[in-house]
Amino acid sequence: MLKTNAFDAATSGNIPAESVAMIERRRRLLGPAYQLFYKNPVHLVRGEGVWVYDAEGRRYLDVYNNVPSVGHCHPHVLEALVRQASTLNTHTRYLHENVLNFAEKLLSTMPAELSQVMFTCTGSEANDLALRIAEDFTGGTGVIVTEFSYHGMTKAIAGLSASMGPYVKVNGDARVIPAPIHHPADPAQVGKKFANDIRAALADMRRHGIKPAALMIDTFFTSDGGFFDPAGFLQEAIDVVHDAGALYIADEVQPGYGRSGEHWWGFQRHGVLPDIVSLGKPMGNGHPMAGITIQPHILERFGNESSYFNTFGGNTVSSAVGLAVLEVIEQENLIPSVGRAGKAILEGISALAERFPAIGSVRGAGLFVSVDFMTADGAPDSITALAVVNALREEGVLIGASGPHANILKIRPPLVFTAEHSQILVSALENVLSKMF
Amino acid sequence: MLKTNAFDAATSGNIPAESVAMIERRRRLLGPAYQLFYKNPVHLVRGEGVWVYDAEGRRYLDVYNNVPSVGHCHPHVLEALVRQASTLNTHTRYLHENVLNFAEKLLSTMPAELSQVMFTCTGSEANDLALRIAEDFTGGTGVIVTEFSYHGMTKAIAGLSASMGPYVKVNGDARVIPAPIHHPADPAQVGKKFANDIRAALADMRRHGIKPAALMIDTFFTSDGGFFDPAGFLQEAIDVVHDAGALYIADEVQPGYGRSGEHWWGFQRHGVLPDIVSLGKPMGNGHPMAGITIQPHILERFGNESSYFNTFGGNTVSSAVGLAVLEVIEQENLIPSVGRAGKAILEGISALAERFPAIGSVRGAGLFVSVDFMTADGAPDSITALAVVNALREEGVLIGASGPHANILKIRPPLVFTAEHSQILVSALENVLSKMF
Fold first, then answer.
1. On the CB side of A276, how many CA atoms lie within 13 Å of its CA?
2. Using CB atoms, which residue from B34, B35, B122 is nearest to A312?
3. Interface test with B, best of A5, A25, A26, A34 (most B CBs within 10 A)
4. Mutate which of A65, A310, A311, A410 to test chain B, going by most B C-beta atoms within 10 A?
5. Nearest chain A Cα to B104, which residue?
6. What is the pLDDT of residues B272-323, one digit of tens each?
7. What GO terms are given for molecular function (chains A, B) (predicted)?
8. Which of A281, B1, B10, B102 suits B193 as a labelling partner, its CA being 20 to 30 A distant?
9. pTM recorded for the entire structure
10. Residues of B with CB below 8 A from A19's CB?
11. Cβ of B97 under 8 Å from any chain A Cβ?
């Protein structure tokens, strides 16, 4: 998964000498794990709102980055960062209002049952902590994840990230089930099948003497390719998990923070209540911060016995930044605006799908939209998808591909993306497809 | 370990009403895992250099915090943060000079063999990544750690942090050995015994069919209580580890970044060469960043096959901040200054030890100094140590205690602490001890 759209010297485009030198320097200093995007990697130097600029001053519409959630270099977030970083930056073992004000504001966006929060620095750490708590609470070790899941990079969580490829082993007590594939012809079967797949996984755990601990899923199945419909389809699955004594961990690192354009949190689309919610990327608009929210009875024993501490998590600066991001989402009324921009993308690309048969399904929730590319005989078409990704880069639009076959355009821009930006995206895609077909 | 010096409502001092309200709010919002320092917790609002200020404007000498390594709110670091955060904050999959300039500068402080670096956000993530690479390179799963080790909070690394107490299980394939206890009467035996303990652990792994992967140690055995002498004592241990086909992971989260006052890195005190070095706390002067440096042949396969990526690690802002911290250490010539300040602490407290028999051993390397408190019959005296910690807080000095018996004063201030600040610390300690004895 993670090598989708990776630069490869063997198949690279016509790259400027300056980029060649930087790529060589990266390889030497950072080693082989560091990947670059695009056949012709982008050298960015500046960002503002939904726009980023390269070293030649060329402007790109950012349709890829969900981390700068309220827009690159948002002045309100910047002001909070500067103010607090120039005053005091300390951990949570001294009293300070910032972590409390941020915690209170964040929790106010959640269902009342999720009334406590703990802070980490990365979504990987958030999921790792959620896993530790779930194992502690249930006494189980079995975790159910989807086929092309991605939940992070710690040793324990890499073992629950089935998208990492054959080299990274899935945890032996974990069970991998199919993602709830989009099925517009028979929407009722999506949730039914997903729940049945969970029943089968639980039965298989029982056969192997594994006690179940949790279902850990990205609410929008982001790395699996993006599956959103029908709203509410998760309910039966969650009931099955709870009946088995296991917890439901909602990985909201990508679906959360208003991305659905309907609610603050992706799980609200399905009317379900998680036991633990993990948070990450958009929380700090780029500042490294993440965390979990949790129902207190689940945290009680672990919190008392295990004395978790995260040096940087919830520090005075991170808390100021996190609060500022929530304020922007509220003050700029971003959630309905996300809904409008997302609808414009869906409508625009659905219209293109009628003209370009290479486009299969188009689906989304707010500013997370997935566009499948398919061959004439109905197979996933990663060649076209990656050609589109690279052609859009040349057109001035940064975008990525995802899914187990790397054939799915992944559209998840900053939340300040408006319907006007959606039009720019749709036009660029139309240009690219017109040249290709 | 982590509850050493924790606030406890049952034994608390006379706490201002404002603090009581904040403590209640913390418990409600953050749950039971969050600990506060001191019987009377400190409410800090501002920091500058080695000084922090509480809400009443009272000033405290910061002898505890190694995270604000070049001093609270250092202007050069702040300027780098503001400049880059207001320009562009993106991940490492686009080309950008910052991560390369930072990587190059950081690696220039390391032995030539450690020529590649990967960036994470926390020391926990750094040790977790080091572990994954060591297991991959060796094919082993056995890790040797010390009795009261602390390496971080991910599930895998909490299982290698023996100081976490009985509730957090040590990984079944890990082996726990005694720390290399200070032995001024027979310094030669320190390294010999430590190497023999490793030989025994390796033999026990063989008996259990566990293939060894690594020795993971904090170079200064920080959480074990601080053991530094004699310089060079680690060499035999590392040879034993390498002879067994395992790697030496140097946890330099606390000993690194010039803290020894002699070298950039703690392991240089012992003349040994790690296979992987993990870095954390001081890297960003409070900005959440960490990483590993590594010998390229060890990273090669893992890096190519496992496609590690850390969303925030090495981003444009973190890299700018990290570079600025290294520049300050160099431009302000902090390493020799750390050596002078540390020597003044050692000498001052050694003189106090002659007057106050409660002080047992005083030992250190640069600005990491350990002071054991012992009872009259030679047992570890945590009651006195914690009384001193709380009394120093009232005297305007922030400090902590550590070690398996919580009887060891832990002195590890910001690196801009000078010999003049050392005198303030020594005088405050003299005052406190004079009142107590």
1. 29
2. B122
3. A34
4. A311
5. A29
6. 999 999 999 999 999 999 999 999 999 999 999 997 999 999 999 999 999 9
7. transaminase activity
8. B1
9. 0.98
10. 95
11. yes
**With an 8 Å Cβ cutoff, is A44 touching chain B?**
yes
In chain B, residues with a C-beta closer than 8 Å to the C-beta of A39 are none
Residue A193 C-alpha, separation from nearest chain B C-alpha, in angstroms: 32
For residues A77 and A285, give the distance between their C-alpha atoms in angstroms, rounded to a whole number: 8
Domains identified in chain B and CATH numbers: 9-70+334-436 (3.90.1150.10), 75-331 (3.40.640.10)
Distance (Å) from the alpha carbon of B183 to chain A's nearest alpha carbon: 32
Other beta carbons within 10 angstroms of residue A244's beta carbon come to 22
Question: B251 Cβ partners below 8 Å, 6+ apart?
Answer: B123, B127, B151, B216, B217, B218, B219, B278
Strand partners, A59: A53
Contact between chains at B158 and A34 (C-beta distance less than 8 A): no
Does the structure show a pLDDT above 70 at B431?
A: yes
Site of tokens 């990663």: A382
* Residue B378 CB partners (closer than 8 Å, separation 6+): B360
Return the residue of A nearest to B26 by Cα. A100
Contacts of A75 (CB under 8 A, 6+ apart): none
| CB–CB contacts below 8 A, A to B | 324
User: Cα B88 to chain center, whole Å?
Assistant: 31
Give the Å distances, CA to CA, from B141 to A3, A168, B215, B246, B252: 27, 15, 11, 10, 22
A85 lies within 8 A of chain B by CB: yes
pLDDT digits 0-9 by tens, A38-97 = 999 999 999 999 999 999 999 999 999 999 999 999 999 999 999 999 999 999 999 999
Task: List the beta strands (DSSP E) in A128-211.
Answer: 142-146, 175-177
Task: Tell me the two tokens of residue A174.
Answer: 């974990």
Task: Please tell me the total number of residues recorded for chain B in this structure.
Answer: 437
CA dihedral A34, A38, A39, A41 (to 10 degrees): -70
Q: Pick A32's closest partner by Cβ from B46, B78, B303.
A: B303
B44/A96 touch (CB, cutoff 8 Å), yes or no: yes
Q: Which two tokens stand for residue A151?
A: 């939940």
Residues in chain A: 437
Q: In what order do the strands lie in the sheet with B247-251?
A: B116-120, B290-294, B276-279, B247-251, B212-218, B142-146, B175-177
Is A11 an interface residue toward B (CB < 8 Å)?
no
